[in-house]
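SEVERITY: medium
COMPONENT: batch folding queue
REPORTER: lab tech (J.R.)

DESCRIPTION
The queue accepted two submissions in a row. Attaching both inputs and their returned structure tokens so the on-call engineer can compare them side by side.

ATTACHMENT 1
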Amino acid sequence: MSIIRKFKKQHPWVAIDKTPLEDARLSFKARGVMAYLLCKPDDWTVNLNHLTTVSEKDGKEAIQSALKELEKLGYIARYRGRNDKGRITGWELVVFETFDDAIAWRKENPKVELANSPEWAETPETKVQEPAKKKNQRRAKPADGKTQNQVQPDLENPMT
């Protein structure tokens, strides 16, 4: 009797949230780039030149348009990275599986200035609360020249 053993593989699979893969607003190109990025380790650096070399069919412009599409919809945040001295070191990209991840990251990093605000950032539920701006205290005068605070006495009925 013989024993047949299979070679033990390093897990060639990955578990990712399917939200971006089912987002109808994304092109299949953007979904593919997103799936590729989510397969990488957490400390992996996104590099446009690398992405263009791993795809024999898509060029630099195709990968850039996919990344822009993902950024526009909030799956990627792009901001200028800075070193300890505050000097700009280049662009940093953060990839999110879900909008909840993006919102949580944005709340943890409110001072990070994003290159572009994603579409979801404009909704009241997801927008990071910023300090209220002071409103202009002046009131516009109506066409008759009277401000709204001025009360005109009723000369015919002085009791009112």
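ATTACHMENT 2
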Amino acid sequence: MSTTNELPPDFSGIAQLNHITTNYETGITSVVVYTKYYRNGVLHREDGPSVLLEGKPHEYWVHGRQYSEEEYGHFLAKKALKEKLESKFGEKGYSQRGKI
């Protein structure tokens, strides 16, 4: 059994990592489950947190850059505004001009 957590450098997808610890005094083993979302080898998710700890939001990453929850909210608002403007005016911007 492999004990490495290596992913291919350009991995895109969801990786589940189990961190197993054993308390040798009590003999109790505990497992902490991390779920991580990757795109092209970096942590990335635009529709929620890219790192979940036991299924709960833990870290927000977009294109390999970590955001606080507040910063992530601002990112989503800017993204929504950009998409709205692009749908209204087109990707290159609105170029039709009228007479002045």
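NOTES FROM REPORTER
The longest strand covers residues 28-39.
No errors were logged for either attachment.
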